[in-house]
Each structure stands twice: as structure tokens, then as C-alpha cells.
Amino acid sequence: MFRQPFNWREFERMRRDMNRLFENSPYLPRGRAAHFPAVNVWANEQEGVIVTAELPGVSPDNLDISVTADTLNINGSRSPENLPEEAQYHRRERYCAEFSRSVQLPYSVDTSKVEASAENGTLRIILPRAEAEKPRQITVMASG
Amino acid sequence: MADELQTQKQEAEVAEGAERTRASRVYIPQVDIYSDNDNIVILADMPGVADKDIDITLDKDILTINGFISNAAEPEGYELVHDEYGVGDYRRSFTLPDEIDRDNIEASLSNGVLRVKLPKAPEAQTRKITVKAV
Questions:
Q1: Which of A70, B14, B93, B117 could form a Cys-Cys staple with B64, CB 3.0–4.6 A?
Q2: Is B85 close to A41, i.e. CB distance below 8 A?
Q3: Cα–Cα distance between B11 and A121 in angstroms, integer?
Q4: By residue range, what is the domain housing residue A65?
Q5: B112 and A83 in contact by Cβ < 8 A?
Q6: Which of 3.30.1490.100, 2.60.40.790, 2.170.120.20, 3.40.1050.10 would CATH assign to domain B31-72+83-134?
Q7: For residue A14, is it within any domain?
Q8: Is A113 inside a domain boundary?
């Protein structure tokens, strides 16, 4: 008998998809944040937060990222390609305008240690958690 | 509401009976297509794809662009608390009009945007296209 390795990732993916499906449902009243760019937020209690965003075609010159203790702001613009004189569009699906997103962070972060990098159009921002805020283990003193 | 849905990545349908050999998902990249007197240009959003992972093929009159993700780049030890997009491969096909010069199709990739330039001329042949990085 062969054993299939249990792939938990697929279930995680399905769960996220279901959540995403209901988030965007027009029947649920939800605050609608601007949707460009799409961001993913990763968190680790000890380490901090990592925010990734898909920003193809946006150079660092057109990006303005600022962070406060608990909020990350990503502003910028993506300019459309300069068209030659007689050109005309057949299809226009890419968002080419100004964008502004505000991401609420799950933990307070140390703003002096925030790093951002971009690779192949994907932006990755690493926000380490503020030292004083990291959870500490508390030992229990037993007596009696 | 239509605006919101458009900026989300759309997932591609898998053809019946033709499974992919790769385990990742497939998305349809958003494109802008414009033309002037000399060329038709396709701009496709493919964030996360490196230039060596792009595959463009022209078969009869169908141009197919494929972009492959080499690593899911999920941070180790972190939990995803908010997700708006998934990471996966890209694939989209276009039917080209007859008057494309198939020998001189050029493609380049910059910042996750693939730019395919299709010069206009009366020719019709099957060719493989190489990508150069910008």
C-alpha cells in the first residue's frame, strides 16, 4: 500500500480562498479599502510583521512608504506607458494611476528597523516587532 | 464593484482532462494591448516572475505567454494573517491577426511587467521567441 504524504497546505489554501470569497461578497457590509495593490500580511509574535504586495511596473522612485508604530502606508503611482502618436488601446486592464493603501499592523513595530525591498515587481517590507513589546515567558513560582 | 473585481488576480480554468504537471496555481495576468502603425504591443503584469522563467510560444496564430514562479517565497515561521492575493504561475493566450511579422517578435521583462512587441508585416510562420531582461 502506498502512503500519500498529508499536504496540509492545500487545506490552508482552501480555507483562505473561502475567506477571501466571503470577504468580497457584495452581500456582506465591509469597509472597502482600495484594492491596488493587493497585500498579504504575515505575522510572527516574536519576530514581527512582513507585508508583501504585488506592484509590477512600479519603480522605487514612484513609491512612498511610511510607517508609524502600528500602521503601514503605501502610496505611489503607476504611470501608463508613453504611447506613440497614432497608437490606440485595444485592451486596458492594468491599473495605471495613483494608489494609496493603509495597512493596520497586528503588532507595534520598531520603525527604525523597517526594511523594504522589491524583486520582480513584488514588494516585501519587513517590520520587526518593537523589543519592549515582545511577549516574555513568565515562570511560575511554586510554593507550598 | 466591477472595478474592485478587476484588480484581483483571476484564476485560470484548467482544461478538462489536461492537468498541469506543476503544483502551483495558474492566474490570468492582466494585460494592456495597444497598437500603432508599426507594432502591436502587449504589456502583461507578472509580478514575482524572473526573466528566465518566462516562456512565450507562437503556434500557428496563437501566442501563449507563460510565467513561472520559482519559489513561493512564504516567510518561514510566519503566519498569514491577511491575504488578498495568491502566488502562482501565469498563463494567457492570444489569437494574432494575420499581418504579424513572426520572425521579429521581441519580448522583455522589467519589474514584473512583460512587454511583447509584435511588428506588423505580412508573414505567417511558427517561431520560438526568446526573452531578454531589462
A1: B93
A2: no
A3: 19
A4: 34-80+94-133
A5: no
A6: 2.60.40.790
A7: no
A8: yes
Distances (CA, A) of A73 to A35, A99, B88: 14, 11, 26
Q: Where are the domains of chain B?
A: 31-72+83-134
Contact list in A for residue B6 (CB cut-off 8 A) is: 93, 95
- Alpha-carbon distance of A60 to B33, in angstroms, equals 25
pTM for the full model? 0.74
Please tell me which of the candidates B3, B77, B85 has its beta carbon nearest to residue A40.
B85
Q: What is the pLDDT of residues A91-120, one digit of tens each?
A: 888 888 888 889 888 888 888 899 999 988
| Nearest Cβ partner for B48 among A43, A50, A122 | A122
Q: Do B112 and A93 touch (CB under 8 A)?
A: no
C-alpha grid cell, residue A142: 511554586
Residue A16 lies in a domain: no
Which residues have CB under 8 Å from A138's CB, separation 6+? none
pLDDT at B116: 94
% of chain A with per-residue pLDDT over 70:
84
Model ipTM value: 0.73
Chain A residue closest in CA terms to B134: A120
CB B47 to CB A38 under 8 A? no
